[in-house]
Structures are given as structure tokens and as C-alpha cells.
Design goal:
mainly alpha; Serine Threonine Protein Phosphatase 5, Tetratricopeptide repeat; 8 helices; 0% strand
Length: 141
């Protein structure tokens, strides 16, 4: 991607440079699957179980291809958390996926935010506060 930018002589903003560098995987197929899930997440899916489940399916396929794809694990966590919040059900609400994401990259604010919300719902407010502080700190970096 840097070669394309250089060939086109395009000037990137600092945020755009970070986005290119933070792709999280070198596998194009895994990245494309993640982007499909991210697109659904960004457009909005709250209240639509099928769209939330589609995010999870895309990202699960991405982590099958690249098990070390932390960003895909974090997006799984966010979708699982939202589904649990809206529809209830069993499962840990994304905690396991968030923890896997953080094992791979401790600086993912989304994964910390998922843990914060789950801790808050479980009335574990001190732990939730610590996770929110970490999420904010890592997002600012």
C-alpha cells in the first residue's frame, strides 16, 4: 500500500498513515473479511441480529485464516457484546474474544471497551473504570 501511495505521489494525513499501518494482518483475504464485518458494524446493526451475526461470521473466517489478527478478534468481541446487550442469551458477551485480542495486541481500545462494558454490567465498577481508562489512553496514542 505504501508503494501505491508513493507511485501516485499522494500525501496522506497522519490518521490515514496510521490506518494503513494498523491493518493488523498481511493476509489480504483476512483483511477483506474484516473490512466486510467492519462495514456492517460502521453502518449500524443494533437491533438486527442477522447483521450482528454476519459481522461475527466474517471475522471468525478472518481469524481462521490469520489466528493472530487482533483487530478481527476485537470486532468479534464488539459484535458479541452488542448482541448480548440487545438480545440476551448465553455466552460471555465478547469477553473471550476481547481477551484474545488483547493477548495479541494490548493496545486495542475496542477490546478494552468491551471488557469495561461487561464489567460494568456485572457491577465490577473498579475493573470497568480501569478498562475505560486504558481504552482512552490507547485510543489517544
Amino acid at each position: 500500500s505504501r508503494a501505491i501511495v508513493a507511485a501516485l505521489k499522494v500525501k496522506l494525513l497522519p490518521e490515514e498513515k496510521k490506518a494503513i499501518e494498523r491493518r493488523g494482518t498481511d493476509n489480504v483475504e483476512a483483511y477483506n473479511l474484516y473490512l466486510l464485518g467492519r462495514q456492517i458494524y460502521t453502518i449500524g446493526f443494533e437491533g438486527d441480529r442477522r447483521r450482528g451475526e454476519a459481522i461475527i461470521r466474517f471475522c471468525q473466517r478472518a481469524v481462521e485464516i490469520d489466528p493472530n489478527y487482533a483487530e478481527a478478534w476485537a470486532l468479534i468481541a464488539m459484535a458479541e457484546m452488542a448482541l448480548r446487550s440487545h438480545f440476551g442469551g448465553s455466552g460471555d458477551g465478547g469477553v473471550s474474544a476481547a481477551e484474545r485480542a488483547l493477548e495479541l495486541n494490548v493496545n486495542l481500545p475496542e477490546a478494552h471497551a468491551v471488557k469495561a462494558r461487561i464489567f460494568s454490567e456485572e457491577k465490577r465498577h473498579d475493573e470497568a473504570s480501569r478498562e475505560i481508562e486504558t481504552a482512552l489512553r490507547t485510543a489517544a496514542a
